[in-house]
Amino acid sequence: MPHSPPARAPQAGHDHQDCVRAALQAAERRCAQSGARLTLVRKRVLELVWDSHAPVGAYALLDALKAEGQNAAPPTVYRALDFLLEQGLVHRLERLNAYVGCPHPMGPHSAQFLICQTCGQVQELEDPAIGAAIRAGAERLGFLATRQTIEVEGLCQACRTA
Amino acid sequence: MPHSPPARAPQAGHDHQDCVRAALQAAERRCAQSGARLTLVRKRVLELVWDSHAPVGAYALLDALKAEGQNAAPPTVYRALDFLLEQGLVHRLERLNAYVGCPHPMGPHSAQFLICQTCGQVQELEDPAIGAAIRAGAERLGFLATRQTIEVEGLCQACRTA
DNA sequence: TCCAGACTGTCATACTATAACAGTCCGTTC
DNA sequence: GAACGGACTGTTATAGTATGACAGTCTGGA
Hints:
The structure is a homodimer of 162-residue chains. Chain A is an alpha+beta fold. Chain A contains 6 helices and 5 strands. In chain A, the strands form 2 sheets. Chain A has a 3-stranded mixed sheet with strand order 4-3-5. Strand 5 of chain A pairs antiparallel with strand 5 of chain B. The structure holds a DNA duplex (30 and 30 nucleotides).
């Protein structure tokens, strides 16, 4: 592996090109391993999602593709996103109807998302204690939890100190 | 208070009319206390939301209103829902773009939702340990959590045993 | 080379939500 | 009781998000 995965808490000054490169390389590995085909459209959509640490809407991706002269319609984008979601390469933020890149696509996945109200950036948190607390709470009501959506709004460190 | 709030884990055989009555009475109290006006439209929408413990979409509510002969358009429903959300009388489920009644509108609100994949019913869970775990996990990244969306899919007790 | 399956292009449409403006109701003030 | 102001509702139009369906193309394997 050329270098460690991108920081979980991206700083304003970080070299975002590193994030993008790392994400694309991880995606290549992930797909090679699973036998999935990371085609041009899919790869381009993944790059566009990674253009920032902020979530992007499907129609913003569509506009970006069109601006590059690609023949693109809503299904183009949604199919690519479906593929990327299946492969664990991006996540969907339900509150925002938007998508972010996953910084550690090879790992386990019951992630939590921290959405900054000020700068709009999203950090992914992977805290086993949270998942465990939820499973335990659910189990007390006899409920068997299989999938969790956890999205937290608030202020990121950079915006708090600023 | 005429009787205790509806059970958090509604059973197939429970008398749902009790739930509805209790919810409407709690809503009246809540609004009387806050000075908000629970008008006819708002009350009717709240009743329709409470028709079951399963989440209802805005356009299903709209159809129901129209079927009753009311003049109704999307804003009619969305305004009523906005009001009910503000008053804490209903919750929105982001994963489903749908709404459920809140069984304890007078209490504090950082609730978690358990959505059964089989029967579609939703239970509200209010476990302080979950909120605390999330705030703690976020704080370790320097993130100040102000609002949480927690939606858990799985199997409810009734569907597990069935 | 042919075939089957996966992928993409394209058109149409469904579903979810809000903007904007006019009209109505209701309590308050004078 | 009349005028006023604010909250609420009706109505039309439109924005934003997502999917169905079908035809054409590409790719790898028999």
